[in-house]
Amino acid sequence: MIEGLQPYAEYKESGLPWLATIPGHWRTARNGNLFQQRNETQHPDLPILEVSLRTGVRVREFGASGRKQVMADASKYKRAARGDVAYNMMRMWQGAVGVAPIDGLVSPAYVVARPFPGTVARYYTSLFRNGVYMGEIDAASRGIVKDRNRLYWDQFKQMRSLVPPPDEQAAIVRFLDHANRKIDGFIRAKRKLIALLGEQKQAIIHLAVTRGRDPNVSLKPSGIPWLGDIPKHWEVLRLKSLGTKFGSGVTPRGGASVYQESGIPLLRSQNVHNGELRLDKVARIAPRIHASMSGTQVKPGDVLLNITGASIGRVCAVPQTLLEANVNQHVCIIRPISKRCEADYIAMFLATNAAQNAIYIAQNGSSREGMAVSEVKTLPIVLPPLDEQREIGLKVRAETQSLDTAITRTVREIALMQEYRARLTVDIVTGKLDVREAAGFGQ
Predict the structure, then answer these.
(1) Of 300, 386, 373, 375, whose CA–CA distance to 342 is shortest?
(2) When comparing pLDDT for 170 and 438, which is higher?
(3) pTM for this one?
């Protein structure tokens, strides 16, 4: 059904700078002719809505204290009726737009647009999330710096949009719903496969770091309830006895405004993953800033552990190829004593489910997951002799190589499917592909 889509029979010039041609029976119009701004307040009993970049408009969830705080100022919130389009003025250029699922209240920082008859709101939210259209939104937004830009109603209403016939707008929505269900099913299956492969890898690593290379080795109680027995000749230590340095960094003064295209990598929690350091989206800072942060400079062979946020516990060794880097406050540097332990072994042990459970217990963040550097030092670790650590590392890499390959391939398949979804949506909402027959046109 998706594979058989074809272009329309006739096209014409769109007259829009961001789109060359449109189907011959489509037209364009200013958004002010498709929507009317809704500016209603004084509805304090309605639920609070928010706009998510991923899921559009949804009902906001609060804890008891949060709800009381927000509702105290509900008189300033705007009513969004079911079916209205709502967007975040400061994040519209990123796709923060959606359709209200129920009557509710949105922040004064949102714009509420009531669709006129013949305007299918969900078609337009798909159009507005189109990357090319978001470029036009960005150009129309006003502010001192990009992160503060706002798309006000006066600018939004002047922007021109595509106008397929109303029944065709509805057909496009139906088809996209169908396509998204198929794509979501594919992605769910692939993520389930990744989880299963990850469990297999975890089992291999756990056995290696609790039993070593000899399955018949004599054992002793580790004294750690969640770990069980370990080989008799291994030690049970606290992490602090194996490192010459423990510490986390800071965000440079100026935050993201000082990041640049080239320079010294500033490693953040999103760069640290179990078993690998990902630098594809790394922030970079000037050498002078790096030099001013001398206390948190990273060396090859360090171990990096995320200590705050949702990714707490992710851990990896710094490769020998990374000669210079720094970290922010969300990442802890552990510098192993090279004569006693291997960075790869420490990272491998800390990534096991058992050690991750210890990290979970140690964290002390009340409103956000968090772990102090002092608590990192007290984490228990079992330590084989140095030569056995190296042998364990070689054994684990050999036994998990095929799993890593399969995981990498599956992650890439998910990324390709997400790219396909984005391209398909753009082609459909801009009229490059005709979905009328596939969507049951006229139903």
Answers:
(1) 386
(2) 170
(3) 0.80
pLDDT of 64 strictly over 50: no
Task: Give me 301's structure tokens.
Answer: 């062979």
Query: pLDDT per residue over 9-58, tens digit each?
Result: 999 999 999 999 999 999 999 999 999 999 988 888 889 999 888 778 98
CA-wise closest residue to 295 among 346, 241, 333: 333
Would you say 44 and 73 are in contact if contact means Cβ atoms under 8 Å apart? Answer: no
Tell me if 393 sits within 8 A of 351, measured CB to CB: no
The two three-digit tokens of residue 149, written as one number: 């830009």
Which own/partner contact pairs does 6-12 have at CB distance under 8 Å and 24+ positions apart?
6/433, 6/434, 7/432, 7/433, 7/434, 8/431, 8/434, 11/431
Describe the crossing of helices 166-211 and 121-128 by its angle, rounded to 10 degrees.
50
**Residues 90 and 149 sit within 8 Å (Cβ to Cβ):** yes
Which domains are seen in the chain, by residue range?
1-9+164-226+393-443 (1.10.287), 27-161 (3.90.220.20), 235-383 (3.90.220.20)
pLDDT in tens, 79-129: 999 999 999 998 898 899 999 999 999 999 899 999 999 999 999 999 999
Cα–Cα distance measured from residue 286 to residue 311, given in angstroms and rounded to the nearest whole number: 27
